[in-house]
Each structure stands twice: as C-alpha cells, then as structure tokens.
Amino acid sequence: MRTTVVYVNYNPGMESLRKPAVRGKAATVRQSVTMPVVLAREVKARAKLTGAYQQFMAEGDPAKRSEAGEDLIRSIFGSAAIAVDPLR
Fold first, then answer.
1. Buried-exposed string 29-46: b where 16+ CB fall within 10 A, e elsewhere
2. Residue 6 has pLDDT above 60, yes or no
3. How many CB atoms lie within 10 A of CB 5?
C-alpha cells in the first residue's frame, strides 16, 4: 500500500486565477439510484398521490374537480375504491 503526499504552497494573499462563480439558477442534476422494489413502489405511489392531490386542489371546474377527486381517492385506496356506475 502506498500513500502519496502532495504539498501545495498556499498563499492567502495570492489572487485566484479562477473567475468568480456566476450565481443564478441552481443547475439540476439527474441521478439514478438503485433501491428495493418495495421502496420503489412506495415512492411511485407517493408521487402519484401528490400529483393527484395538486391537480384536485388546483381544479376550478366542478365536473373536472369531481373527476380529479376520484383520481385522488383511487391513488389513496387503490383502483377498486370507487364502484363503477353502469349507468354512466
């Protein structure tokens, strides 16, 4: 096993040659992670629940709000939570 020691002569009075970083919008980083199947299902369910909730809260039209509410209920309790109306 080898260890290499690197010595850098640091002078705090010396100006940096780098340009200052531009502060603006934070860059987005896309990353992949590996997780157990059970956790992946839970994450997907939470994301679907959040999206359904936001859509329900943002909807102004009563008919579309009702439909968004049904989607929210399905995302919480499952697809069989709301009985299908045969007359609809």
1. eeeeeeeeeeeeeeeeee
2. no
3. 4
Angle among Cα 57, 62, 67 to the nearest 5 degrees reads 70
Q: Which residue has the tokens 């990353």?
A: 31
- The pLDDT of residue 16: 59
Q: Encode pLDDT of 29-69 as tens digits.
A: 888 888 888 888 888 888 888 888 888 889 899 899 988 88
Residues in the chain: 88
Q: Which of 76, 79, 78, 57 shows the shortest CA–CA distance to 68?
A: 57
Q: Where are the alpha helices (DSSP H) in 1-88?
A: 37-58, 62-77
Ramachandran angles phi, psi of 15, nearest 5° = -75, 150
Going through the chain in order, the beta strands assigned E by DSSP cover none
How many angstroms separate the CA atoms of 62 and 84, rounded? Answer: 19
Give the alpha-carbon dihedral of 56, 61, 64, 70, to 10 degrees.
50
